[in-house]
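Q: I'm teaching a short session on how sequence maps to structure, and I want students to see two examples side by side rather than one. Could you give me a first protein with its sequence written out and its structure tokens following it? Keep the formatting plain so it prints cleanly on a handout.
A: Of course. Example one:
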Amino acid sequence: MEISKKSFVLYNDLIYTIEHLTNEEKGILFQHLLNYVNGIKTELEDRLLLVVWKPIERQLNRDLEKYEGIVKNRSVVGREGNLKRWNKDLYSQYKKEKITLEEAEDIAKGRNPSQRFLVTDTDTDTDTDIDIDINNNIKKEKSFLGDKNLKTSIEEFETQWRDVVVQWNKVMQHKTTLPEKVVFDLSNRDINNFNKIAIDYTKEEIKEALIGMFSQKDIYKTLLLTPSFILIKKNFMKYLSAYRNDEKEIHNKNKKDRRNDY
């Protein structure tokens, strides 16, 4: 046995086990002990020393197993803490046993820094009326803006908006609908906000944020369903987080601040 740490424990009651040995035998036993914990194979030929040695050997092995268990547990706890701090959506899926810790870490490695924002973790399993396809394992290499000019990017965003609105209208027809042809009207401030988001986030992430907003419970009762609202950076990040954490009632947690987002 070669232990994976620089020290080991000898218990003080060992003195009673070896008290009947001669000093020479104690020296042989101690040398064998040092060889054992350093992975050097030696054999005890004396049957008396072998009888004394076996309980010591078993105790060393038990202590080593306990130590390795603690090290492994601390490693897992540390990895979980790191995942929770920087990728709370993946941590939530891991805790729900939808993915393993290793899978979550692999997905996190493929993310760019802009995706690793802190979010509030809420464990909710409510169903959504809008079909959401979560696939965080896709590596997103380009921002939404990419090599396109701003005008082309805005046109693509408008298409995304209309697609989500059309789908939402199908679900909500018995309550309320949005006229997709007239709700998309961006001011200069909106365009500036969009430009900032399009530089930092991908096309897929922008669509996820849109779905995250339209998936909110009773959102049709609010005045928030506008492109202008989601293009505010903090709102965009909030709904992207809601999508990834499957949160459907984030407005109930901050009603007081809702009207101040503009």
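Q: Perfect. Now a second example for contrast.
A: Example two:
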Amino acid sequence: MDNKEELFHIRNENRQLQAESEKVSHPDFYINDETLEELQKFCQDFDPYRDLDLETKFRLQEFGIIDLSNPFDITNKLLLLLENNLQYRIKLQENK
């Protein structure tokens, strides 16, 4: 269990460093390309109706999902995060 918690903290530290290094102002929902790819992979394997293990709970918290009591709500928040980020990237490409 300590290894999972340690990995969680390392990922958080890496994300904080990445966020500090990005100078461009993005909306609050924005996640970088690497994190977006991780989110897409996570969503492909994620079943909100199964019991959530500690690693899955940590991953959901990394994506800003704190309330884990409602599987439907978890799914909606994940989809909204994906959709907002994909649409934002499309909008950026159109404005170039």
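Q: What should students look for in example two?
A: Point them to this: The two ends are 46 Å apart (CA to CA). Also worth mentioning: Residues 2-95 form one domain.
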